[in-house]
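Memo to structure team: turn this sequence into structure tokens by end of day. - J.P.
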Amino acid sequence: MSRKVEKPMGPKNPEKSGKSDKEKIAKLTGDLKKYDDVGYSRESEVELDVIVGELVSIGSPAVPELIGMLSDPDSWSSYFAADALGKIGDEGAIVPLADVLEDSDLGDRAKDALKEFGEVCIPEVIKRVEYRIAHPIRGEGGIDRITAYALSTIGEIQCERSIKFMNRLLDGYMSELPDGPFDPTKHDWKYVNMDFFHLLDCMVRQQDERAIPHIEKARDVFPSNYVDYKICQIAIGRIKMKRPDEGYLPLESLDIMLPAGAIMNALSGGELGWEDTFDEEYGEYFEDVGGLKRGSKDPDDDDWAAARDDDDDDDGDDDGWEADDSDDSGVDASKRAFDSVYQFKITLKRIRPPIWRRIQVPETYTFHDLHVAIQDVMGWEGYHLHEFIMANPVTGLEMHIGTPSEDFDLQEILHDQKEMIARYFTMEKQSAEYTYDFGDDWKHRVLLEKILPKDEDATYPVCIKGKRACPPEDCGGVWGYEELLEALHDPDSAENEELLEWLGEGFDPEYFDAKAIYFRKSGR
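Reply from structure team:
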């Protein structure tokens, strides 16, 4: 249940302080607006946060001026006005914040501000969704998901009103679903501004089992080989297993329909190699409906199950979207001031038993800093290109983050030195895919396990735990590594002589010592 925001206390002596507050508010809001024409930098954001803090300390008297600033959603100051309104907690701001939820940029900040109010804001947000369903907007660009921020607000505030509304919304959506395929941009379809998979994802975030019968009813409308059926079943599984942040269903639906690895493999003429990992990633969610029905081997054979159980052992005994245009990539990231640390689990995909590491890094890390930490803790040598792929947690758009290169221009690459991990990893259990060396195609799952307070006695980054050695650089990817392991098991074979000579002596695939990890400065 979301917290209830108490109304801030007003000034002790309104007659005495009213004039001074009014003057102070005018100055502070004027200072906010001065930044509208200034490019983003870390320094300016710190300065703006200080101004917001002063406005919050004034409380309700500042609310009318801050609400007025929302009328210009293209201005940077409007973002910070929304932040201040959420922190002040005056319920008079709920309606104005709900009114800007449909804005493509300010809507994200409005959503975060409304979450501060908790359950009390839900009726107004519901009204906005209901109005848009009754008055849909159609454009040439296809389905316009302008209800995304409103639905996310409802989904992330766990309460009775939220779950009942989403259950009714899903039932209504399915009751008007036409028979057979249709183009929603041309069909008279009042749900054109709402994404089916995003709604399911919001229901998962509620973690209320009363949603399951409604999702089951929706699921059974589709044939079992349809992605709609699969996403419904995954949603049901995540509610039953209490996994609200395991993934983002709209993005996963795209990858299930058109796996990026399969597309790249096809474009390369099959040279990259590709393996369908659907059963491995989602198979457990389908046990209630007869298990896996895809004709492939169940990944949970005895040996693998034992390895996976060991992998998942967490016992303590064994151990809004702006790019940052400032350039401090030469600064050791661990020296930047921070209060919290992010605990990640990095698992190398498609290798059994798993090769994985658990690390803690400062919240102030860029994706470049995280890249360097992964290189160090895994044992890679940094010779090749890399890329993170992660969903924008609000829009669901797939973001590619790495080092832009003229040689690889299939999609826009955001510069990893300008993208902060805290902008994307907004809650525990979110994950990204990290690919290193596009030739060998080493794919890693980067899972945010926990957000923890900083230990003043610790040095960050730090490796907490891990299993098994990293494959040697340039060994040929997963399949080359498997050949290498076979050679190690049969060193006397003449066929393996050349491979073992290349490998050299001293490589033990089962060895890993977390205490031996040395993290280099990330500004390299």
